[in-house]
Each structure stands twice: as structure tokens, then as C-alpha cells.
Request: fold
Amino acid sequence: MKKHILGFAVACILLTGCEDFLTVVPETQLSSATFFKNQKDFEQAVNAAYVPLRTITNDRAWLLGEMHSDNTYYARNVLFGATDNQEDIADFSIPESNGTSANTHVLNQWRQDYLIISRTNQILTLIDDVEFDQAAKDNVKGQALFLRAYAYFELVRYFGSVPLHLTPVATREEAALDLSPEAEVYAQIEQDLQAAIPLLPKKSAQDPGRVTEGAARTLLANVFINQKKWSEAEQVLTPVVTSGEYMLMADYAMAFPGNASNKNNSESVFEVQFLEGAAGLNGNFIYQFMPRPISAAELQPIMGTSNPQNIDGEGNNIPTPDIIAAYEDGDLREDASVGYVFLSGSFRDDKTYPYIKKHAKQHSQHNNTGTNWVVYRYAEVLLFMAEILNEQGKPGEAAAYLNQVRDRAGLDATTASGQAEMREAIFKERRVELAFENKRWFDIQRTDRIEEIIRPYGQRIIANPLDYYYPPIEGAVPRSNAFTNLSKFYAYPAAESDLSPYF
Reply:
């Protein structure tokens, strides 16, 4: 990578420095030579490798994976001014030059994923050379392998070909690598996860919040599905279904953790941990999701805080009319997922806006929540199995898994028959079951339906901006470049390309 990637800069400092004129590492100086000495050191290091997941899920993933789809949009506030970085993502209008983009959210996603990679590379390079309890060592190593694979899976889906760093960066010259083809990146992800699975404990034997065997299997199944390796996906995912470690929560709304309770519940396969308070472990993604301007009085019933405050600016991640219309009549998930709030300060004639209710959990401190972000849950495992079986010509077997999800939602069994009908039924079910969980863009992308879905969606917004939260004010319309960049991948970050000869 480059000098702006903190993890690789730290790695460079740790692994180089004074060796040209000193042969002894000062014992009082923190470095890879003095730190990685025992079990506690490696456990602290793997804890640090989880940390960027908070920034990714709180600030980035919903922009790049949900608002960059037909599920959510932004609520235009003409008094706030330009917010081009967010709007460009939602409007599929990110400017590119020579395959690069100056979009700050794209840049920060890149950097956070490579920060995970740099930290896990440190662990994986050194851990086998240090003796400590084998079970503990296997657990740490398995977590590091999972986290590196997860970061690369994000990168390959966002960017396609990316630099494949597998060892710590020791010099400035090593920081820039050529782009590895997608197939090579996927092969490394598979290798990491196949190595992680036998090292990781099952959920019932693992500390809450840490990755497990089931999480590694689910991620690997997702990786196989992206490559249409259906039989491999079935083989790796079946033990998750038969393990007895997971089950659907009886109530859909209870599948999502509260501010301080219901975390890592029986449906949770892997979730990013947050903690309300002043320790720096908190999140605020639900505040970023709210339509604006919203007054303290309008916000308080949703958040339950004792110190609510007005929030101005431009609302992001607002459910579109399209996703609301996608719920079938009687689907219990709609009321659990989408709420409505009246904004007295809105310029729109219809001042009632939808918001993402499924993530809105009561808490005590304004703009400070401890609500975990669920990355994988058992309902998606069931939908993965349905898709895997259907793509192998077994729509009848697929229906059994699909119907488990539909039954909890209060819906009748699917009427789909035949592979093509079942494929569409599963695709639609994923949309409503996993709405606002940052899955929609990846589903559209991996099924090659970008032109089919996003172009007409954009045309609807351009033709009817009032339906998509634009106020009835002159000039408050989609920009001229809206929906002109429907690329499968994001362009590479310009700030990074300035420091690399390879893109």
C-alpha cells in the first residue's frame, strides 16, 4: 500500500529503523521484537485487528453497500449545501479519472480494510515462532485468518483486482504492490478461511463477539457463492445448519441486538461489537441514518435519550419507496424494519419520512450507542442454503430453507416452482429479510443485474424527485450526472494511486 495507510506505516516502523547502526533492539521501545512475546501479546494484537470493523460498519459499509442500491437514498436538505461524497455514491455518479476517484468514503474503506490486513499479517507472521498454550494459539490464529479474509473479501467485491499483501511491510519500497487478479485474491481468501475453520471454536465455546467456526464457514460459503461454486458452498455451510449452534429468533425484531442486551443472540453468526459510553467503543450509525432536519422532540421517542438534540444537515440511508413496496401484504418484517417520523422543519408538503427502525434501539446518551452491527445471522445462512440448492437444480429442497424464513415473517410458503422461479423468489426474499444490512448492492452486483435494476431505479428518481424526498423547491432535483456511472466496481482511491505506480 502507501504511506497514508496507517497499518503499513506502523508495520514499517516496527520492523525497520535502527538496524543499520544498532544490533540490539532497546527493550524499552515497543516494536515487533519486544512486543510479541506471549499469549497476552497476541490476544491484544488480534483485538486491535477487530477495531477497524467499527469504523467500517458505523461509517462506511452502509454507504457503499446499501445506499449504493435501490434500498435507500438521501433526504435532500437544500439549506445544508453540498454533500457530494455521499450523494455521488447514492446517485451512481462518482467522478472517475483514469480509473481512480477522489471520493473520501471509497478511500477510507480501502484504508480501513488494509489496516485490518496489516495487523493480521503481523500476527500470522510471528505467532508460530512463539510458544504458548496451543488451544489459545489456534484461536488467535484462526481469528486473524478470518479477519484478513474478511478484509480481502470486502476489497475484492468493492474494487476487483487489489494488491495482495500477505506479510508485514518492512520498507517503503515494499508498500506498493502490483494488482493481483480477482481469481488470485479469491484463492487467498479461500485458503485463509479453510485454514481458520479447524482452528476456531464453535460459538458455544468462544468468547462472545469473537469469530467462530460457524462465522468462518458462513463467510467461506459467501465467498464460494460469489464465484458460483455451489457444491463447495453446500459442503462448507451444511455443518452450520446441522450444528445446533444457531436458530432463528422467534420474533424478527429480536434478531437485532439492543443497546446493552440481546447481543450475540442465538441467530447471530457474527456481529461487530459496540459499547455505549466514553471508552471510545460506541457507535452512532442510527443517528447518521435519520432524515433531517429533525428536532429534539421528534428524535426523543425514537432514541429514548434524556438529552436529545436537534440534528441538522442532510439525511442518509433513508428507505426508498421501492423497498417499502417490496414487502408483501402481511409481512411482519415491514413494521419491524421501517418506522416513520414527522419532521416539522421539512420543506416537503409530506413531512413524514421513513427511517430504519430495525437498528433504532433505545439508549441513554445522545449520539452515543452500544448497538452491535450484525454482519451475518442465521436467517442469511438459510437463504444461502436455499440459493445453493436451487442453483444445483434442487428447487424443492431449496423451498424448505426459504420457507423457514418466510414462516417467521408471517407469510405463506413460497409458490415458486422450477429453478428460475425459485431463483427470483430467493432474490426477492433476501431483499426484504436483509434490508438495511448492507447486502443489497452485493446481491445486485454478483447476479449481474446492475443495468436491469439500477438504471430504471435512477430513471424513477429523475422523473419523480418528490417521491424520493426532494423538496418542492426550484433547483432541488437530481444533478445532471445522476446515474451515469453504473460500474460494477468502485474506482481506486486517487490519494492511494498517487503513491503507487500500479494504478
Summary: Residues 134-159 form the longest helix (26 residues).
